[in-house]
Design goal:
5-stranded mixed beta sheet; alpha/beta; nucleic acid binding; RNA-DNA hybrid ribonuclease activity; RNase_H-like_dom_plant; 211 residues; elongated; single chain; RNaseH-like_sf
Amino acid sequence: METLFALSGSTSLWPVCNFKYEGIRAPVNRVIDQVSNMLYLILSSQFPNLPLSPTIASILHLIEHIKPKLDFKMVKWNRPTFNEFKLNVDGCSKGNHGSAGGGVLRDYAGHLLMAFSAYFGCCSNNYADSQALKIGLNWCLDHGFSEVNIESDSLLVIQMIKGEIKPFWHIKEDIRQIQAMRTLGHFTFTISSEKVTPWLTCLLTLRSIAK
């Protein structure tokens, strides 16, 4: 709303300049009409279905009582099968703060067994996702977890690991190492379409900022 008023307020700059430099005072009603007309044009173009009137009173009333439409979607973490484990990994890239990655290992009952985060510096999302996956997979091998379902929301990285697409040049070696580690146990890779661990996302955001 502040942006709308800033844009609409620009229409009254010329009357202000005329008064300052030429001593010509614009009528108040004229300025109000210009502002309301600009607001009307902006709102009607962005929200064509709103019942709008060009009067300033009706526009202000509508802006004050407008409510955003909320959409709700259930997000569920699916447990692994009995005696198996699930490793959820994720990478994030926050621009100037750099990139980070992390993961969470849980058993079939949902008990937390391990969580990690790591800072990667400035890199791409695919690099952050592949690094997080590699760190998590390496930890599982070092600690005797060989029956693990690894879940990531990076479709491209999972496709590269499965050999469905050619790896990008800057993560080609990482993908090769992941594929080699995959043969040392029973590791399956699946794609998660949702952020099933929102607190992990918060952890990665803090990690990328704090370094």
